[in-house]
Write a structure and sequence with these properties.
This protein is an alpha+beta fold. It has 14 helices and 11 strands. The chain folds into 2 domains: 7-223, Cytochrome Bc1 Complex, Chain A, domain 1, CATH 3.30.830.10; 246-420, Metalloenzyme, LuxS/M16 peptidase-like (Cytochrome Bc1 Complex, Chain A, domain 1). The mean pLDDT is 92.
Amino acid sequence: MEGAVEKVIEMQGYKLHIVETDKYKTNTFVWRMKAPLTKEDVTKRALLPQVLQSSTAQYSSTTALRSYLDELYGATLFVDLAKKGEYHVMSFSLEIANEKFLSDSEPLLKKGFELLAEVLTKPNTSGNAFDKDTVEKEKRTLKQRIQSVYDDKMRYSNVRLLEEMCKGEPYALQVNGEAQDVDAITPENLYEFYKQVFLEDEMDLYIIGDVKEEEVKKFASELLQFENRKPKECAKQAVSKTEKVNEVKEQQDVKQGKLNMGYRTNIVYGDPDYFALQVFNGIFGGFSHSKLFINVREKASLAYYAASRLESHKGLMMVMSGIDLKNYDQAVGIINEQMEAMKNGDFTDQELDQTKAVIQNQILETIDTSRGLTEILYHNVISDSDISLDTWLSEMQKTTKEEITAVAKKIELDTIYFLTGSEAGA
């Protein structure tokens, strides 16, 4: 796709991805680090990026660091965590103005590189430990972040579905780790862990903007060098066939029931039928014209919301709906009927064309932002594949009704999770 040609260059210890484009008024740096999800490390990995972005050796308080970002014409720095399949991914994003659009033509690209290198390689430490106050502050915040999932019943029910569905699999772990493991983290053991991840993680740096390849390579090689490594791969998990659907009901003091249904798609990003799966999901529950939305929410008036989403690297599809407690059996029945309709090819050419158009618009909207573009390009790193945006769009557009019904027949209901109020009975 025009404006999204990615050049990938092997650097010392990481890969550099450059997208030269004049589409954006800012230059974006996204540093990503991935490693297999493990119970031992998940909580430390959730805490580490927060500690690194809180302060550095040069900017030894959050106020000092944020003040410097303001000096850089309001540059933004933030961190993020994600589960991508069985991998845990830490992201550091820095967005900085392109000096071409400023009256002062101070070279900001180099300053961006210097700041990113400062955050990643020169943390705020004392001896062989992170700054104690920073670690304690971020531990309190992490506990609040974990607790917030339990307070938001929509998110909570999705987490519980995955815990039940993926028991014994790394994907059952929460992205922010476990509350009971936070207290055991010390400034010393977190610093040891920091050194370990920069030796072992698979690391990628994306630079997107109106930049020149040679200049980017020069700054990257001067400021960011690490030990070469062979990144750890996830162990391939054999997923057993679902003999019987696992049905879990949990009671809490809730007025609205949360019905979440988890399916194994048996298809992941990079598989030939992944594009047909995307279109399937769009027709089934991905959009406001989908079968779930129209039949569960609109026609039967059973749900406050009803939608499906894919986990592309784990091969899962989740259906989420909010229903009155008394409507459980009817809602499950209608959702099952819509899945059968998809398996039987019971959808129109109009639904197919409309879904393809919406997916195309969604992808184009996503790449309207540099961070969205990075998100799409990073699929290739996770899946160890090389699918261009053009390929993605053209393969999706070529998808036929027969391919979609073939995909539907591979999808198996695994787990039903229902968060219900006490008056509904178990």
